[in-house]
Input
Amino acid sequence: SYELTQPLSVSVALGQTARITCGGNNIGSKNVHWYQQKPGQAPVLVIYRDSTRPSGIPERFSGSSSGNTATLTISRAQAGDEADYYCQVWDSSTVVFGGGTNLTVL
Amino acid sequence: QVQLRESGPGLVKPSETLSLSCTVSGGSISTYYWSWIRQPPGKGLEWIGYIYYSGSTNYNPSLRSRVTISVDTSKKQFSLKLSSVTAADTALYYCARGGDLWSGLTQFDYWGQGTLVTVSS
Output
């Protein structure tokens, strides 16, 4: 079965750029979606189809995908960006989520 | 604005069947794919399965033998049944919309707020 690998945690200084990776076999050939989940809240879509931002998501959030790695980039990180982030793909009509990355803004 | 709301018992006994419903408001249930996703306390997201408005389904292979998802378009509801539950099925259960007739299976753009189901005697 297809697997997605994310780092357990990423730290970033306030105002700097955070990069969260999502590894999977030839993930560049799939559509990758990213979700932000804050404590006690449902996940929120922040990037879909590798790099598209839904309306209402700040331009500071961007995404890319190539080869075996997809990346969520958060520029000018703010305290409010602290959350768990999950990548997701569809594989053979089933959903695969990454294990999630906890982002800490220092 | 599309809204989803989960409902059902918050406590289920071991070996029994967990039953939840998700009601869709503010939009159509037709032409969309609808999923159930769960999250054990302190852990990550696990997809349970989806149903298309027409009734076709697909399930997580690890849960397939115990899961049934159904839809009632007249009530704008879809439902989850998970049989023979154990403590490992204790989780926050979310319903979500993930794809449509034109785009196929895509991102989950709308989520319910989640409902906690505890399996305990």
